[in-house]
Amino acid sequence: DIQMTQSPSTLSASVGDRVTITCRASQSISSWLAWYQQKPGKAPELLIYKASLLQSGVPSRFSGSESGTEFTLTISSLQPDDFATYYCQQYNGYLVTFGGGTKVEIK
Amino acid sequence: EVQLVESGGGLVQPGGSLRLSCAASGFTFSSYAMSWVRQAPGKGLEWVSSISGGGGGTYYADSVKGRFTFSRDNSKNTLYVQMNSLRVEDTAVYYCAKVRSMTSVTSGAFDIWGQGTVVTVSS
Q1: Cβ–Cβ of B107/A36 closer than 8 Å?
Q2: How far, in Å, CA of B34 to CA of A103, rounded?
C-alpha cells in the first residue's frame, strides 16, 4: 500500500503569512494527488486535484506543486478563513490513502 | 444542486451490524465512481471503500475487507454500505463522496461530500 507522510502536523501562522504543507508518497503516484481543507464539524472540501489543478471556486491563493514523490500545498497569503486542517490524498490505482493532516493554527 | 445525504448511523454493540445509505441528487449518478471515507473522533480521514459507476467493481481498505459490503442502486441514485461484525474501532463519522472525474473508474479526487453520519460501536 502507498503511504502518505504529511508534514508538519501542526503549523502556527499569522494572517498574511505564506504557508507551505508537504506530503511525501512512499512510491510514485504520478500526479494523482489531491488536497482538502476541513473545518471542525464539517466535511472536507476539495482544493487541488491532479497535484496542481485548482478546483472550481477555490481562491487563487491556494496552489499545488510536485517534485517526484514530494507534493506541496502553498497558501500565498493566509486569510482568517484558512485556519483549518488540511489533508493530502493519493489516488493512484484502486486504493486511496490520506495523509495524516496538518492543522493550521493562529499564531 | 449537487448533493449527497447520508443516513443510517447510530449506536450498535460490538459484533453487530448496520447499513448506511447515501442519497445522491443533482448529477448523473451512474456516471461516477463513489467512495466511503470515515473519520474517527479526533483523528484523520480514512478511505474505506470505492465502487465504480456501474457497480461492477468494488474495492476495500484492509481494515474493513470481509466485513463491509459496498453497493449501489443506480435506479434510486443511492449508495449503500452493509457493515457487519462491527468493532469499537469502526466508531467514526462516515462520509460518502463523489469522484470528481467521470473518466475515473474507481478512485479519484472527491469533489462532493455528504454531511456525514455518525456510527458508534460500544457496549
Answers
A1: no
A2: 27
